[in-house]
Amino acid sequence: MASRAFITGLSGVTLTSDERAFLRETQPWGLILFKRNIENPAQVFELTKDFRSVVGWNAPILIDQEGGRVQRLGPPHWPVYPPGAAYAALYTRDQRLGREAARLGARLIAADLRAVGIDVDCLPLADVPVDEADPIIGDRAYGRTPEQVAALAGEVAAGLLAGGVLPVLKHVPGHGRATADSHLKLPVVDVARATLSASDFAAFRPLNDLPLGMTAHVVFSAIDPASPATTSATMVSEVIRGEIGFQGLLMSDDVSMGALSGSIAERSRAAIAAGCDVVLHCNGKLDEMRDVASAAPLLAGRALERADAALMQRRTPEPIDLDAARRRFAALLAGEAPGLQAGLQA
What is d(CA 293, CA 298) in angstroms, rounded to the nearest whole number? Predict the structure, then answer.
């Protein structure tokens, strides 16, 4: 059976009978997990296996595992990872070691995810924050310049891919300048397009070959004053696909967030009409899940081609000595790696 163009959440740590029936009937393209779905490694592994058994294929399973404030897998069963700002701080002292830490941290995250059946991480961010922005991005960012953000985001993506996990580039074309949290209300960015092109959009251009991307629920008034990027055909075609050149599968950010208006079905249809390939819905509320499914078409045409191309990039993880890698990672973050102390003293 062909998949529908949506990614769904679930309500808890196991599939309910109603969720099983829903998944069999609607065939979502993927699943996203949150803390409400997490108890321990054995339980997560069984949940991911059960989901794939119900839908009947090796469907992608996503999670937001950034480190810092955004980490769905955590103690006591999984390590704590630092926010993007930790890599940024190291990069400003020693670019080579900053890059190494970003890649290694992502490679270790990938090992954690693969062990429990998760093969997509909603990471890296390429958002470039500014001083007056809402703190929702804040220390999640890899720096304050598009060059540094793109460099570290690229290392994170490479580390995930080396570990057999697909990266999701977010939040295209940029959430760093938003003065509101899009989980709660719609941010409007009133900045000239030339400024956006030179900063916000510039961080995404070097990453335009990544397999998956996620839109920003942000209005850029200089380009489309009426609609956020998620539901703006102008933003998707002119900026995301055009100026940035992103050609991977494009998913919406969560359509249940407060930034969007209208019913869940209306939001879902608007995202697809704007050019999103797949709709993301996260809260696990079955009535809303049904509305998303009713609005999501079967994956076909260019959307299906992009989905297939993305999944073709899933691969067997490269060999790694995890114990040695974790020691090296800890040394990098502690400033004890060879070369770092000399760099600090220079």
Answer: 10
